[in-house]
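TL;DR need structure tokens for one chain.
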Amino acid sequence: MATDERAGFWTPRKVAWYQRALAVSDYAAVVLDALGPALAGCRTALDVGAGTGVLALPLARRLTGVTALEPAPAMAKALREAAERAGLANVTVCEAAWGDVPVAPHDLVLSAHVGPLLRPEAPFLRDAARWARRSVAVVIEAGDVDDKFYFRELYPRLLGRPYGPGCDHAAAVAAVRALGVEPTVRIVGYRSDQPFDSLEEACDFWQAYLGLHDPETRAFLRRFLADRLVRTAGGWLAPYAKRAAVVWWPGAAAG
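>> reply
TL;DR here they are.
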């Protein structure tokens, strides 16, 4: 997803849904645990494509300072507000994408689930080490245990095309190795469940992500989701078990 597309994609409502999922996920704890050796000795971190701060905020609780690059205005706004609520004055949010603004060296340079940056041909994998005093780390999907949002079913039925593959972590690891670096790779599992207050809100979610807002699609989704979502005491849940590759290698100064 290009910078302009990312900025337009993340509306305030999508950001709110995203934050609700993160609030019940063990993602941050699992990833930071896997990154333990890469964090040793780090005092500062640069989080590229930081989103709402799922990793930037817990890193700020451990480190002296975190700089968060995030080009989507709604995401950047939510990150600033979350840092303020948490009393984390050591988080600097820069509403920009990698390469758009100059950045200072940090001990750790991190990017998680930002597909365009993590493709083998992307400059980030090649250049990030120049700005990392100790470590570069990336987090990339390593294949879905479950179908993400049932898109493999819904895209052919509603959009007439298959749901495309995501970023290939094996290709990214191969690209790092081609630089003469042997990265550390850990495959982790985590929960990425999406809660909803009602079935109607779930229909809103899927229609927003599919870009289909006609009554026929909504009627179909209401039936489809009622068969697949899980009833909870507070509403409905879309359950997702996910896997990710947590990959890191030394920065330029560390080598």
